[in-house]
Amino acid sequence: MSQNNKQVTYDDNNIFAKMLSGDIPYHKVYEDDKTLAFMDIMPQAEGHVLVIPKQKAVDLADLEPEYAAAVLMTCKKVMQAQRQVFEREGIIQMQLNGTQAGQTVFHYHVHLIPSSIHELGRHAVTQVENDQLADMAEKLATAIES
Ligand code: 5GP
């Protein structure tokens, strides 16, 4: 494999792995046996959620079919909750593969962003207050449960 398409190896100490092991706090939206969904702390729009598999995958290339299916089903739940809570139709589903694409955390994740392609905020720049994230996580979790 050439230098240009060299893949990062999975690091057990990446931020999302530490969330899965309970070593780093996060604002949970949804969890099942194969996936976890939580608020992005530097959102590109209000209500930005990340969905991750409970599998050690750097990016899409590593994702096993059962986890791919599980992530997509969790994305559907979260997106429907976002539509309800934020009273909007438009939700962007985004996923970056590799440094060149702008990926910054090397545990596979899907971004679900209540925004439009014309209004999307900057990627991973501005941190939001914990209480705001907690409030949104609670509303989304309640919408998923109902
Ligand atoms: P990527 O660039 O890998 O596609 O996206 C990584 C995402 O993780 C970014 O949107 C960034 O805001 C988010 N992020 C980075 N560090 C943390 C963190 O410690 N907690 C949470 N909840 N999100 C994070």
UniProtKB/TrEMBL annotation:
Q: Which PROSITE patterns match?
A: HIT_2 (PS51084)
Q: InterPro entries this protein is in? A: Histidine_triad_HIT (IPR001310), HIT-like (IPR011146), HIT-like_sf (IPR036265)
Domain (HIT): residue spans on this chain: 15-122
Q: Return any one Pfam family short name.
A: HIT
Q: Which Gene3D superfamilies match?
A: HIT-like (3.30.428.10)
Q: Which SUPFAM superfamilies match?
A: HIT-like
Per the Swiss-Prot or TrEMBL annotation, the motif Histidine triad motif is positioned at: 107-111
Q: What is this protein called?
A: Bis(5'-nucleosyl)-tetraphosphatase
Q: What is the lineage of its organism?
A: Bacteria, Pseudomonadati, Pseudomonadota, Gammaproteobacteria, Moraxellales
